[in-house]
Design goal:
heterodimer, A: 141 residues, alpha+beta, Glutaredoxin, four-stranded mixed sheet, elongated, B: 520 residues, alpha/beta, Rossmann fold, Ubiquitin-like (UB roll), 4 domains, five-stranded mixed sheet, 21 helices, binds flavin mononucleotide, binds iron/sulfur cluster, binds FE2/S2 (inorganic) cluster, NADP_DH_HndA-like (chain A), iron-sulfur cluster binding (chain A), iron-sulfur (chain A), Thioredoxin-like_sf (chain A), metal ion binding (chain A)
Chain lengths: 141, 520
């Protein structure tokens, strides 16, 4: 299938739902790694919205990005409970281990606040991290 | 017979290694059953064999545990003081059932509330919920029955029930634990709400940071569909925006728009999702309902708690605490009991410095105020909030000015942008705290080029001292508190001002120098 056809199939899959925008955007990003200009245009025309309206939604949410980035992503929780358990002290070494190969991202709470510091890679969560464990995670990502 | 080993499949247990542990037990010939979490998180992954607990267990502990000789033994789980001390209604099934087993659910009283609701009809359902005294658990504490009555009485044939499962607050995980551990209870609560208000459609809006919860709920809804019909419901995933926990922003997000807060009125109860009357409630609110609707539940619920805070509150013990986890108890318990007796003090072993209650918008409370009872009104009177019941403990190494700065930075990052006090105020607040803490100017600020123009008669003549900056920060917080459209901008002053009030030294007061007018 061409890119346009795959895009069309995703939109068609959700088109009959009430408020299909977020489900479409999630699936588009899962499929293509981003919601780019072409996707915004296709979604706009399918949902009878202006391109600006779609872009406004895409840019509002932290989850969506406009350009694909093939690097593995490690999300580290930087919210209060993980701060109380010392996450900030791990960040410098973490950045060093990640270099430019791994994309580090901040996330605000993964719901594991009693066993932090915590991180997420894809849909897998990791708890009770110390500097060594986090470094290991990043190197294996 | 093979030994039956029960291990949680909750995301927290899994993040602590429960999957590998379960595989190791299966490898060793045991029969493994994946259940919900008991909520004793410092012991996860917790292994249960014939009621006896072992934790936190690792793969290396497997042989010893199977022989019954492990040093990880904690005795009978149900008798553990952490469990025995609780009053569990919402979390009655925690640790005891397989989350996706309809059989386990029905065997533990599941669907009784829905059956009775259908038998007595919408008006009496609402009367029961009002009589129970149940108030919204998502933060604002609004009486659930009154909200439902408004939706029920609203004109219109198409109505919705929406479950707010955005749970963005740091230090909270009760919603997540219910979605993963007892999803049918949420579904039953929503079906009862739908019956009460006359809704045919329901949505549960879950934050995208909870992938396990999303999968569990989807599976549970498919299984429960015949039981709750004609009511139909589906899961919607958020997209990483804290403000979408605010109910009107959540509705906009569900509709596929930017998650901007709507001005109220109109109330969502009258004009909510797609402009239709909508009952929107937190996960904990809805999950309390099946128990209340079951025979005699409303009176039992109303008997628990103090003053106008009735029933139980699932409290989440998090941060730097030895015994972190989920603790459900009647309102009225104090922070002192929670932090020291139940939580065992800090995990680091150092003295407690502060506790933030109620998520990123909640106040920081110093130990000398730990006798405050858990009660909506008592907290409001102390310029604090209960919020979703998250308790985050900090030891004496915490930098409270840094935490105040973080609160403002979080507000700036998550602001929906609709109103100026929040959108601009939060950014200015971060700058102010940076200046207050700045060693270079000793917490003050020189006149800038514009202020130095001779035309600027009202500009500060000598730049601003640290005291001036703090006055400005206080003023800014007042503006945010009274001028913001929603609680994101309106409550961010709580963590900021409480940090400033109780730990002024962290903001550099201790190094305050006499003001000097030189340098200009
Ligand atoms: C910034 C902000 C974030 C919120 N986040 C949540 C949330 O994550 N979960 C929730 O149930 N309520 C949250 N609320 C409260 C909701 O707006 C609303 O009061 C609640 O969903 C009503 O349900 P309840 O009456 O059952 O508590 C938030 C409010 C604000 C202002
Ligand atoms: S206070 Fe902040 S989040 Fe709330 S409506 Fe105003 S700008 Fe939006
Ligand atoms: S604060 Fe880090 S997981 Fe909740």
């Amino acid at each position: 299938m061409s890119r346009e056809e795959r895009l069309g199939a995703i939109i068609a899959r959700h088109a009959r739902r009430e408020g299909p925008m977020l489900p479409i955007l999630h699936d588009v990003q899962a499929e293509f790694g981003c919601v780019d200009d072409a996707a915004e245009r296709a979604i706009a025309s399918a949902l009878n919205l202006s391109r600006a309206e779609v872009h406004g939604v895409v840019s509002f949410y932290h989850d969506f990005r406009g350009k694909a980035d093939p690097r593995p992503e490690v999300q580290i929780c930087r919210a209060e409970a993980c701060k109380a358990r010392g996450v900030d002290a791990l960040i410098a070494q973490t950045q060093e281990a990640a270099g430019s190969r791994v994309r580090l991202a901040d996330v605000y709470c993964l719901g594991l606040c009693s066993v932090g510091p915590n991180a997420r890679i894809g849909d897998t969560l990791h708890a009770r991290l110390d500097a060594a464990a986090l470094k290991h995670l990043i190197e294996a990502a | 017979m093979n030994t039956l080993v029960r291990i949680s499949d909750d995301a927290l247990a899994r993040a602590c290694g429960a999957d590998a542990l379960a595989a190791a037990f299966a490898q060793a010939g045991a029969m493994v059953e994946r259940v919900s979490s008991w909520g004793m998180h410092w012991l996860e992954p917790l292994v249960e064999i014939e009621g006896q607990g072992f934790g936190p267990a690792t793969v290396a502990d497997v042989p010893a545990i199977l022989q019954g000789s492990s040093v990880k033994a904690i005795g009978r789980i149900a008798d553990h003081p952490f469990i025995a001390g609780q009053q569990r209604l919402t979390f009655a099934r925690a640790g005891r059932t397989r989350p996706l087993s309809l059989e386990d659910y029905a065997a533990t009283g599941g669907w009784l509330g829905l059956e009775r609701a259908r038998a007595i009809g919408p008006a009496r359902v609402i009367a029961d919920v009002i009589a129970s005294g149940l108030r919204g658990r998502g933060g604002a504490g609004f009486p659930a029955g009154i909200k439902w009555q408004t939706v029920a009485n609203a004109p219109g044939t198409r109505k919705y029930v929406v479950c707010n499962a955005d749970e963005g607050d740091s230090g909270t995980f009760a919603d997540r634990m219910l979605m993963e551990g007892d999803p049918f209870a949420i579904i039953e609560g929503m079906a009862i709400a739908a019956h009460a208000v006359g809704a045919q459609h329901g949505y549960i809006y879950v934050r995208s940071e909870y992938p396990d919860a999303i999968r569990k709920l989807e599976a549970a809804i498919a299984l429960a569909a015949p039981v709750i019909a004609p009511f139909v419901m589906e899961v919607r995933a958020g997209a990483g925006a804290y403000v979408c926990g605010e109910e009107t922003a959540l509705l906009n997000s569900l509709e596929g728009k930017r998650g901007e807060v709507r001005a109220k009125p109109p109330l969502p109860a009258l004009e909510g999702l797609f402009g239709c009357p909508t009952a929107i409630n937190n996960v904990l609110t809805l999950t309390a309902v099946p128990h209340i609707l079951a025979e005699g539940g409303a009176e039992e619920y109303a008997r628990l708690g103090i003053d106008r805070s009735r029933g139980t509150k699932p409290i989440q013990l998090a941060g730097n605490i030895r015994h972190g986890g989920l603790y459900e108890t009647a309102f009225g318990i104090t922070l002192r009991e929670l932090v020291y007796d139940i939580g065992g003090g800090t995990a680091s072993g150092r003295p407690v410095k502060a506790v933030q209650v109620g998520g990123p918008l909640g106040a920081y409370i110093p130990p000398d105020q730990f006798d405050l009872p858990f009660d909506y009104e008592a907290y409001a009177a102390a310029d604090a909030l209960i919020g979703h019941g998250g308790i985050v403990v900090f030891d004496d190494t915490a930098d409270m000015a840094g935490m105040a700065r973080f609160a403002l930075q979080f507000c700036a990052a998550e602001s929906c942008g609709k109103c100026t006090p929040c959108r601009v105020g939060a950014v200015r607040g971060v700058e102010l705290i940076d200046r207050i803490r700045s060693e270079a100017t000793n917490g003050g600020r020189m006149r800038d080029a514009v202020e130095a123009l001779p035309q600027m008669h009202n500009a500060p003549r000598d730049g601003r001292s640290r005291a001036d900056q703090i006055a400005l920060l206080t003023d800014l917080c007042d503006t945010m508190k009274y001028g913001s459209l929603c609680a994101l901008g309106g409550f961010t002053p709580y963590p900021v001002m409480s940090a400033l009030r109780h730990w002024p030294d962290d903001f550099g007061h201790a190094v305050e120098q006499p003001e000097t007018a030189d340098g200009l």
